[in-house]
UniProtKB/TrEMBL annotation:
Protein name, as recorded: Glucose-1-phosphate adenylyltransferase
Binding site for alpha-D-glucose 1-phosphate: Y98, G163, E178, K179, S197
Organism ancestry: Bacteria, Pseudomonadati, Acidobacteriota, Terriglobia, Terriglobales
Naturally occurring in which organism (per UniProt): Silvibacterium dinghuense
Record-annotated membrane-spanning stretches: none
Gene Ontology biological process: glycogen biosynthetic process
UniProt keyword Nucleus, yes or no: no
EC id: 2.7.7.27
Role, per record: Involved in the biosynthesis of ADP-glucose, a building block required for the elongation reactions to produce glycogen. Catalyzes the reaction between ATP and alpha-D-glucose 1-phosphate (G1P) to produce pyrophosphate and ADP-Glc.
Alphabetical keyword list: ATP-binding, Carbohydrate metabolism, Glycogen biosynthesis, Glycogen metabolism, Nucleotide-binding, Nucleotidyltransferase, Transferase
Length: 417
């Protein structure tokens, strides 16, 4: 990976994750207790030996920029020419903000050229998966490809959410269909499946840069890799498919697009399950993040009906479960759940205080929310809709402006002195 530059696209507005993206970029949304979504792709980079990475940010990037600066820039050896660097829109070659995925890369064409890489790998900051990009590069070189795109087998009924790739038995790409309603295409490797693009593209630099410049001059283009760049070079260069090799090492391939609230919720529940479908506890493929200084998690009180406990859950540092029960949930740092409360099948962000006698089910609680005593969420959708954001599937999202009072009640632990 020494001659490869990573370009990580992290500038999407994330409308489908609203209201979690109201005040933060989608890649900065917390995931799995300790992490942000972008940490998954960045961990893949480090584990793959990819140590020169540009991160292209745009919308509401303050918390994302801070997270990268404080948690990732020191991971690489800058004295060896390694870097993880944020590139915000500079309007160096355009007067616009990023107009699409290809335009985002084009607007940073001088930064890419300055590094003189042989290869550029385009990545997305909002997917959950484990992948060794070094193996993809080996395949790229072994097949003498000009462009290689990572593909994933999907069911035919899912094609409307993906770019569909037409592949010959040799693995060479001969066609694209961008999010078709239906398709007659089938994978040459599995006639019951369709090959879909994962949004991971490996280019020879001398192919990528001219393609970006030509696309930038086209006023009819959407300036998107899937819609424009790849179809425009099809037949002119050798494009190979690379079938996803999952470093998660479970029975089924694991790749999740967490672009919707329900998909994001399901991905968090995957890691909290008894046998996690997405394994964070894998020393072979460690997940890294910004480390915050908090004391260990604490569980207090053991009286009948008032026992501090968590079952089938992830509980992060700084949490106090004080005479309450947490089940099938993910708690980020510095969460306090007070006596006689129950939290079930929920995601709780950092700095949340849940008062006594609360009942929370199938909810996402945003950071800095303070729920007063007796709050009930997730048991009556009609009531929830009066105060909170509720998805069509019945998932309730509670944000700071939905909190019912301003001043948090001190936790039982502090009250007990």
């Amino acid at each position: 990976m020494k001659d490869t530059l990573g370009v990580l696209l992290a500038g999407g507005a994330g409308e489908r994750l609203f209201p979690l993206t109201r005040d933060r970029a989608k890649p900065a949304v917390p995931f799995g207790g300790n992490y942000r979504i972008i940490d998954i792709t960045l961990s893949n980079c480090i584990n793959s030996g990819l140590r020169r990475v540009y991160i292209l940010t745009q919308y509401k990037a303050l918390s994302l920029n801070r997270h990268i600066r404080e948690g990732w820039t020191s991971v690489v050896a800058q004295e060896l020419g390694e870097f993880i660097e944020i590139l915000s829109p500079m309007q160096r070659v355009s007067a616009n903000w990023y107009m699409g995925t290809a335009d985002a890369v084009y607007q940073n064409i001088y930064s890419i050229g300055a590094e003189q890489p042989k290869h550029v790998i385009i990545l997305s900051g909002d997917h959950i998966y484990k992948m060794d990009y070094g193996k993809m590069l080996e395949h790229h070189q072994a097949t003498n490809a000009d462009v290689t795109l990572a593909t994933l087998p999907i069911e035919p009924h899912e094609v409307s959410r993906f770019g569909v790739v037409e592949i010959e038995r040799s693995g060479e790409v001969i066609g694209f269909q961008e999010k078709p309603k239906t398709t007659n295409l089938r994978s040459p490797f599995n006639p019951n499946m369709v090959d879909a693009s994962m949004g991971i593209y490996l280019f020879n630099t001398d192919v990528l840069l001219p393609a970006l410049m030509q696309d930038a001059e086209d006023p009819t283009s959407k300036h998107d890799f899937g819609h424009n760049i790849l179809p425009s070079i099809l037949g002119k260069y050798k494009i190979q498919a690379y079938n996803f090799v999952d470093e998660n090492k479970q029975h089924a391939l694991y790749w999740r697009d967490v672009g919707t609230l329900d998909a994001y919720y399901d991905a968090n529940m995957d890691i909290a399950s008894v046998s996690p479908v997405f394994n964070l506890y894998d020393a072979h493929w460690p997940m890294r993040t910004r480390v915050r200084q908090y004391p260990p998690a604490k569980f207090v009180f053991g009286e009948p009906g008032r026992t501090g406990m968590a079952v089938n859950s992830i509980v992060s540092a700084g949490c106090i479960v004080s005479g309450a029960v947490v089940r099938n949930s993910v708690l980020s740092q510095d969460v306090r759940v007070n006596s006689y409360s129950e939290v079930d099948s929920s995601i709780v962000f950092s700095h949340v205080d849940i008062g006594r006698h609360c009942r929370i089910r199938r909810a996402i609680i945003d950071r800095d929310v303070h729920l007063p005593e007796g709050t009930v969420i997730g048991y009556d959708q009609n009531e929830d809709k009066k105060n909170y954001f509720v998805t069509p599937s019945g998932l309730t999202v509670v944000t700071r402006d939905h909190s019912l009072y301003e001043n948090p009640v001190a936790s039982d632990f502090l009250q007990q002195g």
